[in-house]
Amino acid sequence: MDSENVIEMLHITKEFPGIIANDDITLQLRRGEIHALLGENGAGKSTLMSVLFGLYQPEKGVIKKNGQVVQINDPNDATALGIGMVHQHFKLIEVFTVLDNIILGAETTKAGFLQKKEARAKVEALSERYGLKVDLDAKVEDITVGMQQRVEILKMLYRDNEILIFDEPTAVLTPQEIDELMATMKEFAKEGKSILFISHKLNEIMAVSDRVTVLRKGKYIGTVDTKDTDKQSLSDMMVGRSVQLEVHKEPAHPGEAVLSLRDFCVPSRAHKRNAVDHVSFDVRAGEILCIAGIDGNGQTELVYGLTGLEKSSGGTATLCGEDISHASIRHRGRNMSHIPEDRHKHGLVLDFTLEQNLVLQRYQEKRFQTKGFINRGAVREYANQLIAQYDVRSGQGPVTAARSMSGGNQQKAIIARELDREKPLIVAVQPTRGLDVGAIEYIHSQLVAERDKGRAVLLVSLELDEVMNLSDRILVMYEGEIVGEFDPKQTDVQELGLYMAGAKRAQEKGGRPA
User: Fold this and answer.
1) Average confidence (pLDDT) over 226-241
2) Which pTM was predicted?
3) Which of 421, 455, 481 is the last residue in one of the domains?
4) Does residue 63 fall inside a structural domain?
5) What HEC string does 355-399 produce?
């Protein structure tokens, strides 16, 4: 075999109950290259990388490193071979400090005592060298997701890994953090490290990778040089049909205000001032209003205060003419659908089945119960209908444990449940986070269809493409305040970026930029 291949995965097959996740896949990684792995949700990308990292054992196939067959029984074997992985959902211990998380499992000891001083010096040198600044004494539960990802990368570097696997590394990052990560990855490749990069964001793949391997429904479709392809060709390979990368929608015809916020305030957990500071706006029937901003500027708290996950501390929220500022979560839910930011924490009960999760908000309705007992037949029938309509893929259909589904399919399940409830207001926070182009196209068309039925959609997104494509009106939020209102047809990403970074702001709070 070609000696420039540092890793070869040959004819890998991996099966789970009811599904062949990897069906005879061959992947070759060259030394010093950034190799992207592209595919739809549930195409088998994460499974293939978990095989390489020793989390799963394949039923068939071999792995070679530098031309020699190797056996990887667990992640310790992978680490010994210089293979490291940053997982899509980080594997960190929240109550430990950053430093303890980095050295865990690879501790330096002398006579049975932990040598933390040496470890700290090594980590500090690595973070300095690669521009990965972190507070080593902070607890993981107190740092942002962007920082947590840096911790995961430092964990790999601390173990002197030469083959770095990034599983959907940008799903939780801001645009600025994504640019920093891309620069770091290029730096690693320059030094001769080899990178496998799982993504379905075509912009990033085009910007950073040397080659792309495409998987579809567990099968190998092909490998192409990035410089010889384009976004449309890659999306067609990935989905198996031509995908609309633009959102097609008619002009909005907004009606009455469904949601009105006046001087709305939500306190911050991290500091004394309000995370949401005297915010006022309306969302009208038949429009998609988008809140844009860099992560951490009060968008999360705004949604928490609105949906009842946090208590508001001032002002009013009026939904369908009723003041809901102090209403219970269930009461608010009668007129509101909520696609939450954190699908694991607030979107799903991971140990419940898919069908149980699909009726979480409506099991008490007459159609799903008989004399106070849940009617399992009605639940199953309803779940199958939503699974088919939203193409939610899982190994065992409605009885699959939510935990075992791919992140993208978990997201589709939440969206199916919330949109099907047909409430006047839809609060959609990062609705396409972790979804592939085919699924994004479908979700966007569904949100536009809901708007056209006269529903009010409040969209919170960090993806500027999504903001520009999907919204009828844009509000930019910075440090808890609304600093500008824009018409997507009359602005551009650069102008929005200046307001998002706080470099510009409207003359009046919430008014048109002067």
Assistant:
1) 89
2) 0.72
3) 421
4) yes
5) HHHHCCCCCCCHHHEECCEECHHHHHHHHHHHHHHHCCCCCCHHH
